[in-house]
Amino acid sequence: MIEVKELTKSYGPTLAVNQVSFEARAGEVVGFIGPNGAGKTTTMRILTCYLTADSGSASVAGFDVQEHPIDVRKNVGYLPESAPLYVDMGVVDYLKFMTEIREIPKPERKQRINSVIDICGLSSVVQKDIGELSKGYRQRVGLAQSLIHDPPILILDEPTSGLDPSQTIEIRNLIKEIGQEKLVLFSTHILPEVAATCSRILMINQGKIVANGTLQELIGQVRSDDTIHVAIRGAEEEIRAKLNEIEGVTDIRHVATENGVVSYEITTSQGIDNPTEVFFLAAVDNNWQMAELRHESVDLEQVFLNFTTGQVEDTAPTAEIETLVEDLSSPEETDTQTEEAATGITVAEEE
Amino acid sequence: MRNINAIFKKEFRSYFNSPIAYIFMTVFLGISSWLFFRTFFITAQAEMRGLFGLMPWIFLFFIPAVTMKLWAEEKKIGTAEILMTLPIRDYEVVLGKFLASFGLLAVTALFSLCIPISVAIVGDPDGGTIICGYLGLLLMGAAYLSIGLFASTLTENQIVGFILGICACFLLLIIGEEIVLFSTPNWLYPIFSYLGLGTHYSSILRGVIDSRDIIYYLTIIGFFLYLSTLSVESRKWR
User: Fold this and answer.
1) For the whole model, what pTM was predicted?
2) Does A310 reside within a domain?
3) Lowest CB count within 10 Å: A161, A220, A314, A331, which one?
4) pLDDT tens digits along A283-301
């Protein structure tokens, strides 16, 4: 559906996209992530024939972007960053205008408009002018516009930026749903979003694709030692000695002591299958009061940092993000990903 | 064609959805009527030549105001990115926008018919020259519009587009004026005189419709619409 080969584009002396190649098929939701200014938007603009690449080739829906831009555009629904819309037009007028340009036959127009209004949850604002709408609703109108001709390929540039958490989740679910039959390529710099919606991840940095694969594959590539957080009540020396005896433990760091409960960060070598269980059993055997037991696996942020900066995990920004997220999420919360998105923390902002 | 029509409808409606069309028409008609009736009752001549003669100068400020937003605004708020990624060719957008601005001009001209009608009520004007005057007015106005449209593609700031439009029209207008022609070298004289935006207009005003005058305006319009299309396309490789 989308085939990109060695695409290069520069603005004056700055190389925005550098030899980018990738492929994507129908039924995939491809997350395009990277720091600000990495070349995401430029790549998308080339794919939608808004810009022309300096070299390389790209074909979308079987049409070359240089040779057949009109055919490419017919098959693509595109939502640019920050959903630019005509503020003096009414919502329905705008969608009508789109059906005309998209050459949807007259008898079907009404039904198409109603269907996108329904999908994007716009029924409460149909009477209004776009200028009166809030950011979230504008984003939805932008999305409705991109869906109106039921395109086989959807290209969305930061579709969830500026939305509140519930809207974000709605849009993500929508993307997932659409992605079951079609190809959705969307960019974001909110990492958990990618984990939550994408079937494949394209990581881009300084104009180059640095990683391409499923989340599991990418995590596999930066697989490293496990880190376990435990908090146990009791004398530190004694417990530390016992912990050291456990097989596979390579390092124990003292994190904090609070009301007699000592927190440790333990590094275990890769061989251990179920590290939490091992420590739980140890606690039972020794009759320890355990206040916390948490297995920290490699997550997307670490993968991201690993690929974009060459830094390994446990760098300062990651740590900060995690503590922030921990503060915000409830203790039972297992899926912290949505919470992270809600706080809007992005690696790009940390940099 | 369908695409041009869709763009035309959208732009034309947007003029009337915003205050632009109403302000433009009211002020334009107000000023023209004032300039006309100011001397009409004194000279007591049932003709509009004086008013038609002023039009190149009135258009100079009014026409770029109509076209300034057509591209500048699209670029500024980013709607150009959606528009130019729709299955529509750049020239179709340019043409649709041009026709919409021409539509506004035509509607205004229609309203201004109240002037010749009132003249006809109190006197007996020469219908032929008035019809010629209107034809010339629309042709010249369309040429101004195409220049203004081009100026608007060059910037994302409406005010800059407005001023650029005035400058371009002004330049093209004065090269055909006698006072400029006096000081131009002999070999440039015919070229300047031919290219001047007002030269052909005044010959149409005399009541003679010459195909050369019409061809001149159509060429100017075509040329600037072509330049606009190039300018819009230039985003791709900049």
Assistant:
1) 0.81
2) no
3) A331
4) 888 888 888 888 776 667 7
